[in-house]
Amino acid sequence: MRLHTRFHRTAALVAGLGLALSGLAACGDAGDGDAETVDVEVEEDAADAFDDGTRMKELAESGEITIGVKFDQPGIGFKGATDDMPTGIDPEIGKILAASLGIAPEDITWKETISDNREPYLIDGEVDLVLASYSITPERREVVGQAGPYYVTGQQLLVASDSDIDSLDDVKGTEVCSVTGSTSLENIEAEGAEPRGFDTYSECVDQVLSGAVDAMTTDGAILLGYAAENPDELKVVVDPFSEERYGVGYSLDHPEMCQWIVDTLTEAQDGDAYDAAFEATLGQSGVDTPEAPEMDACPE
Ligand code: GLU
């Protein structure tokens, strides 16, 4: 167990499951594409670590935080109707951040965000953080804060197993669905496809499964989650053709949150928590645990 001067955090062992992940344990069904959840160690007396007047101090003292995540992206952010908590790399990163504020996973309010409402939710204070396959872009950084990246993926295509599409050239003139307000929809239009925009990726994947569109496009990490759920019907094709750097969204009203996010995630990367979070979630969809990406410097 690593001990740190300011925060210390390890995944706690869950007895009896025998699911060792780099010496850490997780709960859930392993090996079938289902994400698991990792226990985090919640910091005690966390509020003392933060300066008065900071949003971190306020959140730590209130013992509450609202985090916007996706509810329909297996491995990234997923919550079934009867689940208490979402699973996926994004909620796991959210749990690590909340734990550093002394907030336990069960005290986090998880709010479903779709791609198109991530900026409005942050600007209107509907959520304190967004962790929702949220690519860092200069345009988004004009209106919200984005700390990170904590993960880098790239855009690919999801097609029916018997589809002939196997290069980006093949999508020219075909109907390809994605989600409104995403980088993916803009990028595929630039490739000459007929874009079809939906609110959510789960609606889009249904279009591919029913044969209503020729392909779906978004980040490879998202597509691999759907392919893992439907291995006989779907496959992910073409090399990544964009770079999507996932960041943690916060409000520009609280610029001090950036350095806290970067410091907390750097510590998770230096210890075991980042790898454990990854292996328990996207790792279950067959994604290799990546080298933790270097994070951007926070704005002055
Ligand atoms: N990462 C891309 C984006 O932030 C696509 C995935 C999504 O829409 O959440 O737009």
UniProtKB/TrEMBL annotation:
Keyword Transport: yes
SMART domains (UniProt xref): PBPb
Highest taxon listed in the record's lineage: Bacteria
Signal peptide (UniProt feature, chain positions): 1-25
Keywords for the protein's UniProt record, in alphabetical order: Signal, Transport
Annotated Solute-binding protein family 3/N-terminal domain residues: 64-285
InterPro entries according to UniProt: Bact_solute-bind_prot3, Solute-binding_3/MltF_N
Keyword match DNA-binding: no
Family the entry assigns: Belongs to the bacterial solute-binding protein 3 family.
PANTHER family, A to Z: ABC TRANSPORTER GLUTAMINE-BINDING PROTEIN GLNH, AMINO ACID ABC TRANSPORTER PERMEASE
The protein's name in its UniProt record: Glutamate ABC transporter substrate-binding protein
Species lineage: Bacteria, Bacillati, Actinomycetota, Actinomycetes, Propionibacteriales
